[in-house]
Amino acid sequence: MAMVQPNGSFLRGLVGLMSVPARDIPRELSTLLAPHLAHSALIILTADAAGGQRQEVGDAAFVEGVTALDLDQIRRDAPKVEAVQRTALHIGDGLRPTLHAHARNGALLLLADPGPQDVDDLVLSTWNIVALYLQKRADEGSPRYLQHARAAAGMRMDALTELADEYSTTLESVLATLRSSRLDDTTARTRAITLASGGLVHLRTATDRARTFTEEPVTTAFARLQDDLRPITRYRDTDVQFIEPPVDGRPLPGEVAHGARAVVRGTILALTDLPDVSKVRVQWDCDGANLLMNVRDDGKGDHSESSVLLRFVRERVRALDGHIAVDATPGWGTEMAIVIPLDPPSSVIVTSAMANLSPREIQVIELLASGYRNRLIAERLGISENTVKFHVSRILRKLGAASRSEAISILYADHRG
User: pTM of this prediction?
Assistant: First the structure.
């Protein structure tokens, strides 16, 4: 079948999508695609400061049934960048057909119960445009979004680690008990040990994946930076040189990789507009605890502390809890040495956001932030799933959030904020 060509109405809808608030983009994208490809739910995992900001709209059973680790596995299974796949996911007690579109910047679009229409090219092209727009929007926005991303990432990882430690201790205790010689039923004990051992291995595997699903190899992050800059610098007179990072460097958390690319992209674009700059060198390295970035130009070396370029860089570096040293030598150029820690700072829940929530609503949102779904929250708090849904609806309304992920991001902020 020939490729479906977007008509005027589709293009106007795509333009309109670019003007809505970020939280409305999933709904607008779903509306835009629906006439061409029927679907019951839409989930996006964008390549932004959090290395994987999730937003969703549509069938609640599907949305709640897709975990962060499911999305990670889908991204890992992609045959290549810029690909469309049709497959199925286990949701509840059955399989649900899905369509996955992988944008060139690593962002993922997931559609539930897609129709049979052959519009894969249209979906992929549209998603590429939207994903790149979201990346650009994050780059140009207030650096505050980086602070929220770092804080949320730290709290999420802390919660996962604590959960893993709690269950690991429980399983290890059960294992030790079942191995006790005071138990007579050898067969039952052997079988229980096998089950407990398998559960422990599964838990540790899930924890390892949870630690890595928002990480990006430093070489991959640097290669993406080069890809981002190549079409922009191709027709400029400035020679941009890239010094490759070591291949064995520690993987970068998603928000660090994205934030670092945003800083360098903005810096390079500003430098290439200066008539006296003919060469820029970009170098990345990693010492195990920090990402080390060095940007050097051959300009006049007259960047003052009040320059727009340095303000841009400093704001975003501070948002990532990093620091920058600038060495400007008149007539010899400017060198920027930037250090960004790989581990997020400690964070706290914003008290102003919590003030309007009831004690029960606080319990619910904290469990949501720890990765719990409605059923598990209900079991943990001893209430019904319908009551959990009621609390979630009130939380979203009080915080002015359109989704659970947005509510969680609103709650968290840098401890210095």
Answer: 0.53
